[in-house]
Amino acid sequence: MSDNELGLFLRTRRNAVTPAAVGLPTGPRRRTPGLRRAELATLAGVSVEYVTRLEQGRDRHPSPQVLSALADVMHLTPSERVHLYRLTKTADGGFSCMGGAQPLREIRPSVRALLDHLEPAPAVVVNRLSEILACTEGYRRLMAPTGLLADETRSNLALFVFTDPHAPAVYPDWDHVADDLVASLKQGPFRADPHIAALADELAVVAGAAFTDRVATVPNLPTATGITRLRHPDLGELRLAYETLDLPADDALRLIVHLPADTATASALDSLVGRRPGGLRAVSS
Predict the structure, then answer these.
(1) Which among 124, 126, 128, 83 has a CA at the least distance from the CA of 101?
(2) pLDDT in tens, 24-38
(3) What is the spatial distance between Cα 149 and Cα 164, in angstroms, rounded to a whole number?
(4) How far apart are CA 285 and CA 270, in angstroms?
């Protein structure tokens, strides 16, 4: 983890709030994409010097009252508020909730059965290293032509996105996908976990600044839902709505389910699995 994840999270969320969202005028000469530090400080009822200390990492233990005030001004969601609180509790580092636990590389029969019930939707189970442990046949049919599953002994989303030369063509929004994968790797203890540290070292060497710059600038809070654009070798451009579900904490696994985000993608997925039209209905985007 970077030395100042709390400050990084505060800066990025401050920059994401428009002045209009908090009732401030929008001037033509603003250089800050969101709120200025002074504006955040005033609205939260703290000094600008204190906001500066928090963002620079010189104070890492704000009171619950200050956290609440900052969260209110920045319109944080409930999950973002929980994340902000956790960052203040782990600011000093040195503790890994995973300890020396090996990454899980097998799934329980009940999880396998759940995947079977999700057919023909493309769904995949990944561990904390973004290794693919299991998937539906729908996911295999969709992703195999992209090269993601070429080496089934080491199918890894992060390695594919950052090291496979075909990945930028597969993902038109490659930057966003890369940001989210880095956020997922950083969500836990990151380099305090020796297994993630080894993967991060490999990515730093192979991918270079495309990976290391993101480690320094992307907060460790991945998006749980959204739209992924996929440029499929056989089906063309697809839009997939995804939902990420955390399996029990002791597993440290995530289930990612994809559904068509428009009728064209639904028809393409139907043709891929040889089903009648309407087998997978498009969800509203």
Answers:
(1) 128
(2) 887 777 777 799 999
(3) 12
(4) 19
